[in-house]
Each structure stands twice: as C-alpha cells, then as structure tokens.
Amino acid sequence: MWNEKLEERLVRYCAIATPSDSASPTAPSTACQWDLLRLLEQELRDMGASEVELGEFGHLMATVPGNCDGPVIAWMAHVDTSPQFNGLGVKPLVHRNYQGQDLVLPDDTSQVISPSEFPYLKGKVGHDIVTASGISLLGADDKAGVAIVMTLAEHLLKNPQIPRAKTRLCFTPDEEVGRGVKHLDFAKLGAKYAYTLDGGDVGELCYETFSADKAVITVTGVSIHPGYAKDKLVNALHLACQIVEMLPKVIRTPETTEGRQGFIHASSLQGTSSEAVIQLILRDFELEGLKSHHELIESICHSIQLAEPRAQVKVEFTEQYRNMRYWLDKEMSPVHMASEAFRKANIEPNLTVLRGGTDGSWLTEKGLLTPNLFAGMQNFHGPLEWVSIQDMAQAVGVCVELVQLWARQPVAPAG
C-alpha cells in the first residue's frame, strides 16, 4: 500500500547530504541538516499537519489531530547521518524485484552486498532493495525512519476515520553524535510516550541499549628541536601509541565482542610530538561494566605517567547515555503495546538488545519512555548499507496498528 510513497521519499531524502559533526559546537552541528529539516517542514504543511514548528536547535515538530482521548504518542526519527563514512554525493539506487544475486555497486565495484555474507538479504527475494552507489553510505539510518514517520502522518491525515489520539511527530538532528535531543523542549513535544523508528530487522523491538561514556586522553610531551633532542624530547605521539597498544586486543574491542558484551573503542588519535589526543568510546549494558572500562583506562594512563614523569597524561570521562532498560523495566506499557501492534500486523516481535544507542536512550532517562522500532536498515554507517522498501512498509503497518491501540487506552486523570 505504501511502497511507492516510501521509495520516493527515501530516495529523495537520502540524496540530501546531512552528516553530523561531533567537533562542531553548533546545534545542529552541520548547516546541511537544515536542508532536510526545512524540506520536511514544508511537506508537513502541504499534507495538512497542524502545529508545524521548526525550532532554533533543529527540532521539527508537528501534530496529526486526534479524534479520541487516548494518551499523546510521539513518533520520532533523526535526519542526520553518521560521520563515520562519507555521506556526501549520495546516489541512491533501487534494485527492483531482487532475485537473490550479489549487488555490485557501480561506482566502486569492489563494494558488493552479497547474501552469502549478509544472510538477512536471502529472505528479501522479490523485494525492492535500495543501496548507495559504492562511494558513500546510503543514509537509511535514519532516513528510512524519517520516510516511515512521514508516510504514517500522511496516511492518518488522509484517513480521518482511523481512531487516533492527538499524535505528535518529531524529527531531530545530531543523533549520530549523541546530541539529538539535548535541547528538546519536552513540554512543547507534549507526549506521554514516544517511539523512535531507528532499528533494523523486521520484528525488532528494542527496549535495551548500551550505556555509553566517552574518554578523552590528552598526552603532553616535552617539545624541543629534534636535532638537539637527546635526553630532552618526550614524544607525545609515542606515548599515545603506547596507551593504544596497552588497550585490550582480544577482548573489549568492537571487533571481538557481540551480544551483551561491552567494549572500549579507540576512535581517533590526533596530534603532534608535543601533544596528542586519543578519543575512546566506552560501551556496556551494565554500569558495572562501564566502571571497569574507566578503571582499566585510568590504570593504563597511570602506568604511562609513572614510566615518563616529564610528560602529562590526563584522562577525562563524559557521560553520554544510559541503558533505557533501567527505566522501562519499571513501566513496560509502551513495549507491551508495541508487541501487540506487531502481532496485529502479523509480525512476531523480537525483543532485542541494541548494541548502540538512540535518541530514546536519553529521552527515556529523562522521563519520556521511548522504545525503538524497526525501520529495515542494514549495514548502516558504511558503503554496503541497504534497506528493503517492503520492510519499511511493514514498519508503517505496525505504526498504524499502534496508533489505534493507544487510542483505546484511557488517559490518566491529572494529579
């Protein structure tokens, strides 16, 4: 029912470059995100949404008016794409009626999406698969979610007989750099619960995410002309490399962990012989695991400092987000309602852990319980990213069912 609209929106949105930038102090972190936000703002007005407002920090909100008195539910997706891989010059390609073959991406034929390597693709015979061209990511994370939410809104507006309470829409910037809802006005959003459309496989229903911290290690050496450096120079780069080498290699790295295992990921090393900065991301499903990551990094830095007292080795930890399970365990109603909606849409819910975070992680911690629903995206943050239009259509179907289920729920009396 929704395939054509979803495809048209996804291809158009993905072609608009929106990478975020963690080094930028602005909100949104990149000016290009405004391009998609303003486009969505106009499309919402054109389809007849009310209370359309694009705020100063890049939060786009709108309303689908209700026809009954259920609790207000917000539907959310983020417009930015990951800075981890090139997000410029995206050329979305539609592979219609996929027949199980390898998908060779034309702008770099070494990039191949193969069902032998990615088994989920085997089940998509007959689907319409959207990829990038091989030199960029696609941006289905999370423009698939954006297209799903926009299609849901249009469907509700065109079908006023569908039972729904007041329904809120919210598109956010900078989710990929952990700042998507930092400036969100909760009162203006006005929702009792929310859902992000930012997940993968059909059936995925996530109410548990990593807890996340960032560590920044700054190594300051002793600078001097290298020709006269004997017994005087302390090379910050050498010491920084020693720190990286002392991090675990067999355990606690992204490439050696899975499931509920946490990790320490050295994401960047920059600097000169005078000063070098290492950035690390720390992930674990439990706070005890995060604490052990902190202790290990502090121990490594301390040992380097002791070995070379002329240097300065400093580490700073920053809290990013926490596992949403800590709050959803106390009130599972948005998860139970989503599970029921999945079944009404003939999809078996798969309550899964997310080895990452969503805007919902921070929102849930701050009191707006926000589980994450599937949007179909696969292999995100790289050139082999792809998504099935039919998977996206199933996500719209779940959302339509979920809107109606919430419409039947009583609103708790004030106070």
Can you walk through the features of this model?
The chain is α+β, with helices and mostly antiparallel strands and 415 residues long. It has 2 domains: 292 residues, Zn peptidases (Aminopeptidase); 109 residues, 2-Layer Sandwich (Alpha-Beta Plaits), CATH 3.30.70.360. It has 10 helices and 17 strands. Strands 1-2-8-3-9-16-10-15 form an 8-stranded mixed beta sheet, with helices on both faces. Strands 12-13-11-14 form a 4-stranded antiparallel beta sheet. A hairpin with a 7-residue loop joins β5 and β6.
- Could you say what the CATH architecture of the largest domain is? 3-Layer(aba) Sandwich
Helix content: 25-40%
CATH top level label of the largest domain: Alpha Beta
Radius of gyration: 23 Å
Could you describe the largest sheet, including whether it forms a barrel? 8 strands, mixed
Please state roughly what percent of the residues sit in beta strands, choosing from under 5%, 5-15%, 15-25%, 25-35%, 35-45% or over 45%: 15-25%
Uncertain runs are none
What is the tally of helical segments? 10
Distance between the termini: 42 Å
Helix and strand run = HHEEEEEEEHEHEEEHEEHEHHEHEEH
Query: Which fold name is given in CATH as the topology of the largest domain?
Result: Aminopeptidase
- Domains counted in the coordinates: how many? 2
Enumerate the strands of the largest sheet in spatial order, edge to edge or round the barrel: 1-2-8-3-9-16-10-15
Overall strand count: 17
Sheet/helix structural class: alpha+beta
